[in-house]
Design a protein that fits this description.
The chain has 538 residues and is an alpha+beta fold. The protein is built from 18 helices and twelve strands. Strands 2, 6, 7, 8, 9 and 10 form a six-stranded antiparallel sheet that branches. It has a two-stranded antiparallel ribbon with strand order 1-3. Strands 4-5 form a two-stranded antiparallel sheet. A hairpin with a 2-residue loop joins strand 4 and strand 5. It binds adenosine monophosphate and magnesium ion. Adenosine monophosphate binds next to loops.
Length: 538
């Protein structure tokens, strides 16, 4: 029995300029490395009695399900601040979209399945290493409670991919609420194609933000409300990254979804030893996408989105005025055409001014929403049920101290639990200052002690110890996909050993458990294991 997908192919009903139909290019020897059965089940994908080799055939692109309409999506993007009007899916092919068990529409996409009309000079392929990294990272993020694309399957292609060196090829199947990006809006705005822009925005509303359809009738600003929702989701998403020490690494506008999911795991990594200026990506020479810059880059990207959506905001304003326009139009019947034209120009200018003002307001709100979300996350990490006055200073002072001491970010928060009681023992936490990469001095040690004692006092006043500790354990993971472990899994997989990957995957998908079997994954790298640079999959 073949794999059966309940594809609806709704994206394929959008105007034809939104995508290019394309078939995957078969690979020579597909071998299934991993299939995410529980996700398949949630997606209503039927795989009973399907063999591994049949799964490999489907998830390598060697056979396309009958009801799929494979396509490559068109998009533009600002890459490291520079506009590239013509990007699009160069190595990803959307098989189709389908409803999951929660009646949510999901995209199923093959990454590395061959060239598309958007491939430019690229080969349309993926090396095994980055595909494996994406599998681990996105499933870890999901288990950590961060909105993200998911991993459905990983297939080794049996082919060689040439990058800096020869590498094994792979096809990775990912699932998203949608793969629509900030850059997708930019694509149509840049081409002045307002019909496609509007069709895309309406699709995004139906798909991700149906509530906008209802609220908009009062304010009459449907597209502005859509922009508000996208902004809100991004502000909250990036706060989660910051709370967990995650660095995306390539926050180009083509790598930012409008759904609010994390997408495109390239040179991303979690911080071990904390440093707010940390950068892993080998191509991020200027540190544009450093840990600390992520919230501001989110706002920068959303500003590009606002620019792209401006014609839509103006449609909002114009439609809000349309009834009074009609009355006026009737009264103007007698007036000279020239006057009408002048008036229309003036109205357009007013609409534009209004649209810019509205969008600017939303962009300003982004910073507040992000800050609030970050503080709420920090509060939970420290056992507090809510943010109270003075907490912001407490959180910022701690971030400063972590930065100065360079302690392991994840272990610090996880261990803080051991001294949550007002007379709690600080030794396990202070021990982190003895790590090779940590910086310690008597004044720093003193400051950290004082910060902890102050926090212990606040916690004792505000929360019961057991609920605070429970909250902390659910907010501070024991296990994150540490770079050196991911690297180990990749190295082993390259020589055909997938056990290390399996073990790591099992650990990172139970991040809040204290499982003795997973203890090795809790440890930071020893100096020789440290991964200083990560590379894009391209
Ligand atoms: P990324 O760095 O993965 O976000 O990709 C940036 C752009 O380059 C997107 O348009 C990709 O589709 C395209 N691209 C990346 N790698 C390849 C490849 N191997 N072949 C073709 N296009 C690619
Ligand atoms: Mg990308």
């Amino acid at each position: 029995m073949p794999v059966s997908f309940p594809f609806e192919n709704i994206y394929a009903t959008l105007p034809s300029q939104c995508f290019e139909p394309v078939q995957p290019t078969p690979v020579s020897e597909p071998e299934l490395i991993k299939f995410n059965e529980s996700l398949a089940d949630r997606l209503n994908i039927e795989t009973t009695d399907v063999t591994e080799s049949e799964l490999a055939t489907i998830f390598s692109g060697n056979a396309v399900p009958d009801n799929a309409i494979p396509l490559a999506m068109a998009y533009s993007g600002h890459q490291f601040g520079n506009l590239n009007p013509q990007l699009g899916d160069g190595r990803a092919i959307l098989l189709g979209d389908l409803y999951d068990k929660n009646s949510q529409l999901r995209d199923v996409q093959l990454k590395g399945a061959g060239r598309t009309p958007f491939s430019r000079g690229g080969d349309g392929r993926s090396p095994l290493g980055p595909a494996l990294r994406e599998y681990i990272l996105c499933e870890a993020m999901y288990s950590l409670g961060v909105p993200t694309t998911r991993a459905l399957a990983l297939v080794r292609s049996g082919e060689t991919v040439i990058r800096q060196q020869r590498e094994s090829g792979a096809v990775f199947t990912r699932v998203a609420a949608s793969h629509i990006r900030v850059g997708t809006f930019q694509y149509f705005a840049l081409r002045g194609d307002h019909d496609a822009l509007r069709a895309l925005a309406d699709h995004v509303i139906n798909r991700h933000y149906p509530e906008v359809k209802n609220t908009s009738e009062e304010s009459g600003k449907k597209y502005l409300n859509l922009f508000k929702k996208i902004t809100e989701n991004q502000a909250k998403l990036i706060a989660k990254w910051m709370n967990l020490g995650f660095i995306h690494g390539v926050m180009n506008t083509d790598n930012m979804t409008v759904s609010g999911e994390t997408i495109d795991y390239g040179p991303c990594a979690f911080i071990d030893s904390f440093n707010r200026k940390k950068v892993f990506s080998s191509i991020d020479q200027q540190g544009r996408y450093a840990y600390i810059n992520q919230p501001a880059i989110g706002q920068w990207n959303l500003t590009r989105l606002a620019e792209a959506m401006l014609p839509l905001f103006m449609m909002d304003t114009e439609s809000a005025h349309s009834s009074s326009d009609e009355v006026e139009a009737a009264a103007q019947k007698q007036t000279a055409q020239k006057q009408t034209a002048q008036k229309q120009t003036a109205q357009k200018q007013t609409a534009e001014k209004q649209a810019i003002e509205d969008a600017t307001q939303v962009l300003n709100d982004y910073a507040h929403i992000h800050q609030r979300a970050w503080e709420t996350g920090m509060a939970a990490k420290l056992g507090f049920s809510e943010v109270q006055e003075g907490d912001r200073q407490r959180f910022e002072a701690l971030t400063d101290l972590l930065d100065e001491t360079r302690v392991d970010f994840t272990l610090f928060f996880r261990r803080l639990n051991t001294c949550a009681a007002s007379d709690g023992d600080l030794s396990q936490v202070l021990d982190l200052l003895n790590a090779p990469e940590a910086r310690s001095s008597a004044p720093l040690l003193q400051q950290l002690k004082e910060w902890i004692q102050d926090w212990q006092g606040a916690l004792a006043q505000r929360e019961s110890l057991s609920s605070a500790q429970q909250r902390m354990n659910q907010s501070n993971p024991a296990i994150i996909p540490r770079n050196h472990q991911v690297q180990r899994a990749i190295t082993a997989a390259e020589s055909g050993d997938y056990e290390v990957f399996e073990k790591l995957l099992s650990a990172v998908t139970q991040p809040y458990e204290d499982n003795p079997e997973h203890q090795e994954f809790e440890q930071p790298p020893v100096p020789a294991e440290q991964v200083l640079r990560t590379f894009c999959g391209t």
